[in-house]
Structure formats: C-alpha cells, structure tokens
Amino acid sequence: MGIATRVCFVVLALICTFLREGRAATFTFVNRCTGTVWPGIQSNAGSSRMDPTGFVLPPGTSRAVQAPSGWSGRAWARTGCVQDATGKVVCATGDCGSGSLECNGQNAATPATLAEFTLAAGGGDDFYDVSLVDGYNLPILVEPAGGATGATTCAAAGCSADLNERCPAELRTEGGAGCRSACDAFGKPEYCCSGAYANPSTCRPTAYSQLFKSACPKSYSYAYDDPTSTFTCAGGRDYTITFCPVATPSVKSSSGPGATTAAPTGPTPTLPGATPQMPRSAGGQDGQGVMLGDNSWLASLATGDASSAPSLPPALWASPLAPLLLGGLLLVVL
Hints:
Elements: H1 3-21, E1 25-31, E2 38-43, E3 62-67, E4 72-78, E5 82-83, E6 89-90, E7 114-118, E8 125-131, E9 140-144, E10 157-159, H2 163-166, E11 172-173, E12 178-179, H3 182-186, H4 189-192, H5 207-215, H6 226-229, E13 231-234, E14 239-243, H7 296-303, H8 314-318, H9 322-333
Parallel strand pairs: 1-14
Antiparallel strand pairs: 1-3, 2-4, 4-7, 5-6, 7-8, 8-13, 9-10, 9-14, 11-12
Pfam families: Thaumatin
Region (Disordered): 250-289
Signal peptide: 1-24
C-alpha cells in the first residue's frame, strides 16, 4: 500500500471520528444585569472539564466558552463577590467555596438559579433546563441557536422574573439577594422529594413550588417537575445563557475579583455594582407573575403551626377538609 493511500485512510478515519463525536458547543454568557456577576461552571461526574470554571462578567458584556463534545454540567451566576488582602474570593450568593475566581469542580451554595445541560455525543439530542430546585438568586434564560421548533424543542428555557422581589419572608436570605427552596429552608421529605416522597407519585407540587412555577413556568420548580421543564434540541447547537434577560442596563465600571483593575487590599471591601439589580415597573411588578405580600403563613403550613395563618375557625383547621380549603385559599391569593 502506497504512502498516499495510507495518508488518505488516516484522513478519512479522522473525519469519521470527528463526525461521530460531534463538534464542541459554544456557550455565550451574557450579563444584562446592572452589576457585575461571576459565572461559575461545574462539570458532572464523568464529564470532561469545561475551561474556565469561573470568571468575571461586568454588566453589558459577554463571553464565549467552548464545551467539550458530550459535556454535561451546570452553570450559574455568583453575586456580591469580594476579595480580601489575601486574594480569597467570597460571594454573597452562588459561592462555590473554592476561594478563587474559578470554581474548580465545586458546586454552587444554595440558593442559586442553575442552568443545566446534557449535550449529545455522537448524534442524538441535547437536554437542558433552568432549575429553581436549589433556590434562586438571579433570572437566567437559556436560548439554543436557531430558534424553537416546538414548545419544549429548541425553545428558550428559564426564569425572567425577579423572584427575590416576591420571595416569602421565611425563604428570603442574604438581605433579599436570594430566595431559598422549601427543601433548603425546612428540610422536610415532602419538600425534598426524599424518603417516602422519593418518587413522582408521592412527591407532588407544594404551595412553595407552585409559587415558583407561577412566576417561572419554564423552570424546574421541584425535583419531579419534568414534563413541562425539560427541553430538548438536536445536538450540535450553540447556547446563549443570559443573566437578567429583561434588563437593559447601562454599562458601568466595576472592580472586583477578575476585573482588569487591581484588586482592593486591606479589609474586605464591598464592590461597586456587585449586587445586580433588575428593573422595576410601576407597582413593583414586572409582568412575570403575581406579587405576594407577607407570606409568612406559608411557613406555618410547612412547620405545622397554624397560628399565623389566615383567620379561619379552629374547627376548620382540624377538619380533614383543611387541605382543600387551603388549596382554594391559595388559588384566590395567587
């Protein structure tokens, strides 16, 4: 066999390998918040590492990151990050505990809005979603390139609403910068879909997950929210991940971890623009769902204390019909 023939065979083999494995997808991270965010990226076990695993993203900017073929993992935004004199990075929400700009395989601390992906390898479909199962810190929208072909096929997934604005008092954390999940806040099996509730038949939507779902219908609101929250698209697409998708903020300078300016020294500072703010419309609503007032009575339902619940005769609270009455009351409120 001649040298030219052997070279042709090698080239053909490489082409076949490329076609079988598929090309790498590009994730473009866009910050439309009015302050800096620090995206974090974690690869699932057994998946190749995406590089970098964390970076700074000033307001009004974007950054493209290549994902390995067949990559699976999650991405999120860290907020309120500060850097002390030793160089350690700590964030108010979404902190991955690495102490640095990169997350290096570590996950986001709750609460954090998560964009989750399983990309196709060697043909097939990508799967993606935006999850509020671990709580919420920022609005996130995931959009595949090329546009939607169905309700959950190559369609935009995510949450454009500001859940921090309507978060029940008992779930609010970090001074209103995050909204915890009921599982994180109360640890009960019925909220965590664990123990006797570890299957779709027994783990049903709760008052809290329904609140999240009403505001963000294209996001996971609890662990078994699959039918309306898992999106698919033919493999090979690129994706745009937008933080604060409804915002149109002006670009302003920001110092902090990963910025081009020198990091501050001395006592841990508060960084200008470190807490992203979403625009507010008249009356405090943004058209993405209902605004709720003091929802502390929901915590009473979670803990079994009805003392702060809406006024109803004691006999009704003790009645077997109480769950139905509460459900009707919730529908009126929502």
